[in-house]
Amino acid sequence: MTALFALATSLLWGLADFGGGLLTRRIPALTVVVASQAIAVIVLGAIVVATGGWTEWGPQLWFAVGAGLVGPVAMLSFYKALALGPMGVVSPLGSLGVVVPVGVGLFLGERPGVPQFAGIAVAVVGILLAGGPELRGAPVQRQAVLLTLLAAFGFGAVMALISEASSNMTGLFLALFVQRVTNVAAGGAALFASVKRGGVALPEGTGMGVIWASLPALAFVGLADVAANGTYSIAAQNGPITVAAVLSSIYPVVTALAARAVLKERLRGVQAAGAGLALVGTVLLAS
Known about the structure:
Blueprint: H1 2-23, H2 29-51, H3 61-84, H4 87-94, H5 99-107, H6 114-130, H7 142-162, H8 169-196, H9 208-213, H10 215-237, H11 241-247, H12 251-262, H13 269-286
């Protein structure tokens, strides 16, 4: 069950990243974050009411608040790092966040067997290579590296925090709702501050028109991200965190394959090798 839900997490995160990347070509990144998460808040609010999730209110929800505060910071840092480039360095470095939940699992006493340790090592190398790292001739600004590492730590922290925010399914719905409300509040404050400093919240020329036209895509990105957090939480609660975290982090492979299928982007040799190693690591981890 851990492997199944963790792989579902990678699928959902990979597709959400691909959709978010397409949207940020037309809409400012911060607006994409706030709008997609706002849609998720509405859907999750309805689910919480329907399932009686309010009864699960408790101090564990502070973990969800923490995840909600860290998430927007990580995502915006990642987008900024991608803008500074090169993407072939930034993208795989962003996957290093997997060391946070893996470290938490080891600290809590998890001791995977030899095949699992081998799987972790192979899968992490595959994850890094799947982003298509630039191996030469790619100048990297120090700011881009620092922002990427900040984003990676944030992504890993969200994984570690959300897995501690609930202990059952109705509690998970409430935890995800609290996380997304915090996301929207933090992202909305950042968007307001950006506009006050002269930033742009809506695409020039089209305004709200492109937002309304993009609502289905925004909803998909927001809900896929929410579902990924949910499936990861289930995976981490039903098996070793070390295994769940690594299997949940092969989403760069999914993003690359989606770009290949939809945008006809060709996989570089290093990306294909990374995808293969990630699959080998998956088999070892699931053994």
